[in-house]
Design a protein that fits this description.
The structure is a single chain. The protein is α+β, with helices and mostly antiparallel strands and 368 residues long. It folds into 2 domains: 122 residues, no CATH class; 194 residues, Glucose Permease (Domain IIA). The protein contains 5 helices and 20 strands. The radius of gyration is 22 Å and the shape is globular.
Length: 368
């Protein structure tokens, strides 16, 4: 009887270890790879990085950490994250990482960096045990299909999305293209204060369109395996042409005010909308902010970023840009109309805080 109980216990435990479900995103726990195999994969990826460094600036001038390596049980596929290292602090940069893919052909591993031809095709072949279907779907949308920009000129009237008088760092803008080669995040901004959680205030007014607020706070540097989306709020702005959507991504769980958790709720510029955190496809606490047009329909949080200018940024006509060891926005400033003539890592907001959104007055309809 004891042997039967032990067998059933081991079978149940093994089943639980192989397959789990968190926040509707299925993920699998694969055996911890042998240290020698991990070292081999890291070395092979580094060799490919060195070979491709002339094509991907971040890989040429910055040390790149290879993290979250997962290998399929048959030993034929592997995935990992590419994270640039800040040479001044020797810590990973708070940005969205790049996804590197590997396939074993014969006795040798072949590497696909995010900018490599065939990356999307190989992504579809990656076994679910190391990258779930929903994870793959998100990467396909972010890196894959794209649409032409619907805005012939930059939208204006924005202010940096935090309190006036506070200075924060830009970690990347147009050089999102180095890990998101579709260009869908070309006009996005990653803002950070290393290791700090801070308040987000609306860059411009609008109405609440979408939000996600149920992903738990990540106390590790990244919890990507279990939470590919992270928390966000999307604000729709019908005053622009085209109608635009402000995406605020990687928010802290429970930080979006309850009064904003209803579609159509008005939001004023400067109104508190949440806190920065490290949820989702993120590495370190930071805010990913972009103004976008729909890429996969209005009810999907991610779109194609469009050019905007901030009233409180005094360079490049209101466009924050940065040059550092891991990101040179100038290299990716190649879209017609781009301006990248000045660069700075720190920016001070002039976004005055407001307590609540605009008051809407409704007139009842009276039938006769």
């Amino acid at each position: 009887m004891k042997k039967l109980f032990l067998a059933l216990f081991l079978l149940t435990s093994l089943s639980a270890c192989i397959r789990s479900r968190t926040n509707d995103f299925e993920f699998y726990v694969t055996p911890t790879p042998d240290a020698a195999i991990l070292a081999e994969i890291k070395q092979i990826v580094r060799q490919e990085i060195n070979r491709q460094s002339e094509n991907v600036l971040a890989l040429m001038v910055a040390e790149t950490s290879i993290e979250n390596i997962r290998i399929s049980q048959d030993g034929q596929y592997a995935v990992g994250w590419l994270i640039p290292i800040d040479p001044e602090t020797n810590i990973p940069v708070p940005i969205e990482p790049g996804l590197v893919l590997l396939q074993k052909i014969g006795d040798d591993w072949k590497v696909w960096l995010p900018t490599a031809d065939g990356w999307l095709e190989l992504l579809a072949q990656i076994p679910n045990e190391i990258l779930s279907p929903k994870h793959k779907k998100e990467w396909q949308k972010r890196v894959g299909a794209q649409i032409a920009s619907a805005s012939p000129s930059a939208l204006s009237g924005y202010k940096l999305p935090w309190e006036a008088g506070i200075t924060r760092r830009l970690t990347q803008s147009t050089c999102h293209d180095q890990y998101t080669p579709s260009g869908n995040a070309h006009y996005a901004f990653d803002f950070s204060t290393y290791g700090e959680l801070w308040n987000i205030h609306a860059a411009r007014g609008g109405v609440v369109w979408l939000y996600k607020d149920d992903i738990t706070t990540c106390y590790e540097y990244t919890c990507s395996d279990k939470q590919p989306l992270g928390n966000y709020i999307v604000i729709k702005d019908t005053s622009t042409d085209p109608v635009s959507y402000q995406l605020y991504l990687h928010l802290k769980q429970g930080s979006i005010p309850d009064e904003l958790k209803m579609q159509g709720t008005p939001v004023s510029q400067g109104q508190f909308i949440g806190n920065v955190d490290n949820t989702g496809q993120s590495w370190g606490h930071h805010l990913h902010f972009q103004v976008q047009v729909p890429l996969y329909g209005e009810n999907y949080y991610w779109g194609r970023s469009i050019d905007i200018v901030f009233d409180d940024v005094d360079i490049n006509g209101g466009r924050p840009r940065v040059q550092n060891a891991w990101c040179n926005d100038l290299t990716y400033c190649d879209v017609p109309g781009d301006i990248c003539s000045s660069f700075r890592s720190e920016y001070t907001s002039q976004n005055e805080v407001v307590v609540e959104g605009p008051i809407l007055i409704y007139f009842p309809f009276i039938s006769r």
